[in-house]
Amino acid sequence: MAAVVLFGLLMAVRAPAAEFTGGYDGIGDAAGMELTLQQVGTRVVGRLTTPGGSVYAINGERAGRDTGEAQGALRLSGGTSDAAFFHIEERPLGLQFLFIPSSGGQPDMASSREFSFLKRGVRPAVPAKPESRFLPAPPPGARADIPVFIDQFRRWDPRDTARVYASLDDRSRGLILLYDHATAELMWRICEAAPAEGSREAARLAEMLERQQTDCATYLPLVEVARESGVFPEFMRRAQFQFEIVRATALCDRGETPTAKCADVSALGAPLILRWRRAVSIMADMARTAAAHPRDEPAPIATEGTETAAPEPVPVRRVPLPAPRAQSDDAGVSDFEPDISTRTLPVQHPMRLPLPRPGG
Predict the structure, then answer these.
(1) Domain co-membership, 194 together with 288
(2) DSSP per-residue codes, 285-320
(3) Any residues with CB less than 8 A from the CB of 146 and at least 6 apart, and which?
(4) Residue 107: Cβ within 10 Å count
């Protein structure tokens, strides 16, 4: 019985809290602050450095052996009187530091501020799988449908975009490749995915690059310059319009769209196919246009062989990519204005002509 009582008394005694010894880095509102502490017995001394370069000498006492708290005074380096007071509370990853200004030698609690410090060498646990900012794509092996791909590929991880594009049937891929701006956007995203050598995704990308007579190492830097040019939203508008034509064409091929509307789709798409340009040329034109027009001056994208139309206002700041198109029972083309010029363009050299429309 006596042994049981003794065991209970021992369990009731709290283990001593860890010593206030070591370096601490400020986080949150305390970012840029540094705190160094050393505990000798119950005395706690150290130094607090602020981002502005002010240095306070710390001189205090631990409140108790097992309380995890300490308090005392702060004195500016070279000063002769206390400039402030402090109160420290231990935390699992560091400590909480209450800075209390001095007013007439007394603590001014109304003006006090609380700061958080992380013990040097300690890092918060990171979730095993951080939440992705991308939407889930169809799983491997699932049937890839061209309208779904067009609606959602901008919201997928680039690796998923490359995978689903590679799983599209030959007719659907060939239909996309007939349109220059649509191809330019898709090639940019798949290049960023960097498919593994020997994979089906890498093979599809190689076909696209061979057709464009370029490679990702050459193309991606041009895209980055174009994205910072201020006219990239206009490129995205044209790419989206062409993807809408691809969608409408696919639905026409399935017989899901009235014949009259399909004739309109064909009339919109034919001139764009004839005016096909290499993706490198499109991106280079955007960079040249940006160089000729300051960022605060809206400028149109120059198109080879065409007169420059009146400029449309272009946002100066970089805008997010367009959200997926809302689902609708209407299988028609969206409200984007057709990107068609009435002039006939001269043939550009050197250039590989696009493949004929699949099944045409």
Answers:
(1) yes
(2) HHHHHHHHS-TTS--PPP-TTSPPPPPPP--SSPPP
(3) 168, 172, 175, 246, 247, 250
(4) 19
Q: Are residues 288 and 169 in the same domain?
A: yes
The domain total for the chain is 2
Do 103 and 171 fall into the same domain? no
Alpha-carbon span 66 to 87, nearest angstrom:
16
**Confidence band (pLDDT; 50, 70, 90) for 144?**
confident
pLDDT band of 13, cuts 50, 70, 90:
very low
125 exposure class (CB count in 10 Å sphere: 0-12, 13-18, 19+): exposed
Instruction: Give the pLDDT score at 286.
Output: 87
Query: What is the Cα–Cα distance from 134 to 192, expressed in whole angstroms?
Result: 15
Q: Which domain holds residue 294?
A: 136-360
Could you report the per-residue pLDDT of 220-232, keeping only the tens digit for each? 999 998 888 788 8
| Cβ neighbours around 165 below 10 Å, total | 23
- Which tokens is 171 given? 């007719």
Q: Which residues contact 99 (CB under 8 A, 6 or more apart)?
A: 74, 84, 86, 112, 113, 114, 115
The answer to whether position 322 is within a domain reads yes
Residue after which a domain boundary falls, among 71, 93, 119? 119
Which pLDDT does position 296 carry in this prediction?
Answer: 46
Q: Are residues 157 and 238 in the same domain?
A: yes
Does residue 143 form part of some domain? yes
Around Cβ 175, how many Cβ atoms within 10 Å?
A: 24
pTM for the complete prediction? 0.49
Q: H helices then E strands: how many in the chain? A: 10, 9
CB 301 within 8 A of CB 287: no
Q: How far apart are alpha carbons 304 and 307 in whole angstroms?
A: 8
Distance CA 211, CA 150 (A): 21
Instruction: Tell me the CB-side half-sphere exposure of residue 105, using CA atoms within 13 A.
Output: 2
